[in-house]
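Exercise: predict the fold of this chain.
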Amino acid sequence: MQNLVCLQLVLFSILWILKAEKTVGLDWPVTSASVKLLGIFPQQTDVESKNDMWALHCLSMFRAAILLSQQYNIKFQEEFLGYDEIITDHDVMATVDHTCTKVSTSNIVGFVGPAYSSEARYLASFSYRLGIISVSYSATSPDLSTIDNGAFYRVVPSDENTVLSITILFQQYKWKSSIIIYQNDEFGINGMQLLKQKFSDMSITTREIIKFDMNEQNFQIDFQQTLVNSLSRIVILWADRKTTTTILKKAFDENLLGSDFLWILTTTISLDHFNQRQKQALVGILTIEPVKGNYVNQSINTTLLNEAYKIWKYYQPDTFPGDENVNSYALYTFDATWAFILSFEKLCSMQLSCLQIQNASNCYDRRFFNSKKYYDIMKTVSFLGISGEVKFSNRTADRVGHLYYIIKNIQPLNTQINSIDYLPVLKWDVDSTEWLFYKNQSDDIIWPNLSKTVPKDYKSIKGNEIFISNKVLYL
């Protein structure tokens, strides 16, 4: 009897392993290369569907780019480039500490990341001290454009473009006032200040500016009364994914969603965080995000894209969300990594000992020998990436050339009200002066309260008392 039980356990274990292998696929290979790029990625929450796990998408495309360079037999100093990674949790000093540890124990020749603007300036300074480069895939703060030490670039568009796109949207729908809610870190503060200034230049009134304290996870004012009493009804929320989700839940609790407020988000969040009643209240929200070129009928490198997807699906098919559902930041991650690969390829074609590092036990004392040539090459990098044309210059840390955005609208996707998700409705090129319909005019935006009428930016006086001299009018 005991032998039978043991046999059953063995058979169960074998079946479980076979099932796991079928579901998960292979593990990503551990690289033994002596020279590596360090990927810096945020912690991924487990509650999101695989379509919305953007941090995991970025990590996967980082690995895919390195492995693709190996498949293409691209070598540096007669060996392949490898990768290493750290996972961060919005703690700047912890990120720097983990990065220092990796630099001390490996020959790190570049940072792909970080994800957050609050980390980017610290990592840019650290990169410069080491004589290497950091290329971010999602740090969008406009203030980062001023970093001019040659050690920092970003593939993701600056929020300066997001501000311009919002301003054009306001002009297009003839909105003249707004409420700005922002999170109190570098990303939120810089975005809010830039948007407020741009609105002022275009004679758009900012009625309220509301700060969300990230440490306290709350507002320092009466959130509900401030919005209700405001003369504006257009709310722009400038915050990261986690904070945006928190604020929208608070707004739902205060009955500020699905009423007479239009919310515009600068971050696309997962709807998996909301129950069905909350999702119904989110209908009408607009979200603005940068996208790859082919979303607006522009060229991208489909060869690299398909090869990268093939690698991802080979090693971790269970996490691959489908070709059309890979997050845009993951595409920027691949292009950031590929920019390094092309730069190293050019650098190593000029001299044999191209990726030499002066070793030291203290991470801050390590130095990349060929930093000047390295910096000069990255300034001139230009290629057709999987997100579109990727080009840098010596004038800015930003990607230059054509950049593209879309607006998605949260709405019921069919006759079933329970089927609520994002639908692309508008598209914009940074060189354009107007938003265009994403496909055609049948892509109607569903505004709050399931309305097809463009909302006004001002508070309705219907149902309020108006005092004129000694008379009271009821509207």
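Check your answer against the key: The two ends are 85 Å apart (CA to CA).
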